[in-house]
Design a protein that fits this description.
It contains 10 helices and 10 strands. By secondary structure, it is of the alpha/beta class. The strands form 3 sheets. A 4-stranded mixed beta sheet has the order 3-6-5-4, sandwiched between helices. The protein is globular.
């Protein structure tokens, strides 16, 4: 059996993108940093989405992994010892998690396991502590299916806002709720709106010329700083309504309307 046979489609694409990243930087070898860059560049897997939401983006990793060159490497590509260790660790992580395939999460965990590896050094170069990502990546591992992939998970949720509402949206969803903004693809920026990360799922706010606030259908956000977020909302003048009954898991939840009148539900973290 080929070493690559148990790799998911997302993992295979990530490896291809890692090779291209190395080639475009004039390198004839692929190391652990290239593999992590490839995972993020793939962009569609739950792991890529989760890493991007945590601030690990290709824009930030690019300078750390090396500057692109006018002439790319055209010869044979080899894997460095560092990269081989990442791949070996990915197989170990898969076994530990009880999986029979290798996904992007396993590769990412393998990269994070190499304490002196190039991927860890690259993350620290952009101000991200690798150990803080491990739990996030393990959670994403459960959202990736083996080949052949079917529906994996929810990728994003979109709600509407009125034209020109981006600044208010950022003030509310970033400034008060605490969601990190995600840069929209270049070809979609002209449409307006703004995107936010929320764990492995993205929240897209799109412009609707015939906007009407959503009073029934809504997004529910699980919050680690639930009490603090409610306090910030109330301090900013928002009317927060505590639910009369807890969630099925026993945690508190509350409702608020965003600046545009869209209903939003906030749910306390599982451990609260």
């Amino acid at each position: 059996m080929s070493m690559w046979e148990p790799f998911t489609e997302s993992a295979r694409r990530s490896v291809v993108l890692a090779q291209e990243a190395a080639e475009h930087r004039g390198s004839g070898s692929i190391d652990g940093a290239h593999l992590l860059f490839g995972i993020v560049a793939e962009g569609q897997s739950p792991t890529a989405v989760a890493l991007r939401a945590a601030g690990v983006t290709t824009e930030r990793l690019g300078p750390a992994v090396g500057e692109e060159r006018a002439e790319r490497h055209e010869g044979e590509m080899v894997y460095t010892t560092d990269a081989k260790h990442v791949i070996e660790a990915a197989f170990r992580e898969s076994r530990v998690l009880g999986h029979n395939y290798i996904g992007t999460a396993h590769l990412a965990l393998g990269a994070l396991d190499e304490s002196k590896g190039s991927a860890v050094q690259m993350l620290r170069a952009i101000g991200v502590e690798p150990s803080a990502l491990r739990e996030l990546v393990i959670a994403a591992a459960n959202g990736e299916a083996p080949v052949p992939a079917t529906t994996l998970a929810i990728d994003h949720v979109q709600i509407a806002i009125p034209k020109g509402g981006e600044a208010q949206a950022r003030g509310f969803y970033c400034g008060i709720i605490g969601l990190p903004e995600i840069e929209k693809p270049a070809h979609l920026k002209a449409n307006g709106g703004v995107w936010f990360g929320c764990g492995p799922v993205q929240l897209h706010l799109g412009i609707d010329p015939a906007f009407a606030p959503s009073k029934k259908a809504h997004v529910a956000l699980r919050c680690s700083g639930y009490a603090e977020i409610l306090a910030r909302l109330r301090g900013a003048g928002y009317d927060v309504t505590d639910a009369n009954e807890p969630m099925p898991d026993g945690n508190a939840h509350a409702y608020v309307e965003d600046p545009f009148g869209n209903r939003l539900e906030l749910v306390a973290q599982y451990s609260q």
